[in-house]
């Protein structure tokens, strides 16, 4: 009797770890860095490098495995993907390959009596909350990397700071929105991003994003930059719909309290995404411009093009 999990341990994991080790070494990782990234010993990395570990050609030649190894290698190298997300993505692929696919077929080869049954084993949900959460965090990281590499971005950061956020597909409150803790500030001409994205850390930009979604806008990401009529005109000329809302319309002392104004303005304009949302200020409220789109990298690329 042989369990499919044994095939994962004996064939799939050695093969994928060997492929990942080779991929990371090609990207310039040292043996220690590869070991840290994969959570294995340096001696294990050495064995993979010298072909001392038995691997499966069937698994290594599978296009889905090759594509995922390349994606994980790139994500680990750039920092866009955490080890947690890498683990989740591999778990998802394993479960898919176990469900009537490559690993299931290999299981049947080792256990011929299984061929008498047309059964599948759905032991993992590819759309799990953990996976979706890590995907959103990864998306924000990619967007932040674009902004960090945009030379003119620091000059677009308002006095209150900027934040790049993205929400879960079914977001209902700020706890479902990932952003930068402490916001992004201009420090001597450099956009400073204090730490890794987290959920529930952006009251300001998250509230505007959620308000726009409440109006029916199909957007999941937003960033705030300083307001300037010329910036808004440039975005409009680039083809992005622009929507103005009234900040502090009801005498509010903070922009967060203007969420009903955001919802009303977006609902009336019904803009296609991506679009621009802005307010020209009020008593004690700094004027701000927001760019909203489907995901964080798209938002960041719009800002990059604007800053050129």
Automatic annotation (TrEMBL):
InterPro entries: Aldolase_II/adducin_N_sf, Cro/C1-type_HTH, Lambda_DNA-bd_dom_sf, ThiN. Gene3D superfamilies: Class II aldolase/adducin N-terminal domain (3.40.225.10), lambda repressor-like DNA-binding domains (1.10.260.40). GO terms for molecular function: DNA binding. SUPFAM superfamilies: AraD/HMP-PK domain-like (SSF53639), lambda repressor-like DNA-binding domains (SSF47413). Residues 20-48 form the HTH cro/C1-type domain. PROSITE patterns: HTH_CROC1. PANTHER family: HTH CRO_C1-TYPE DOMAIN-CONTAINING PROTEIN, TRANSCRIPTIONAL REGULATOR PROTEIN-LIKE PROTEIN. This is Helix-turn-helix domain-containing protein. It comes from Haloplanus rubicundus.
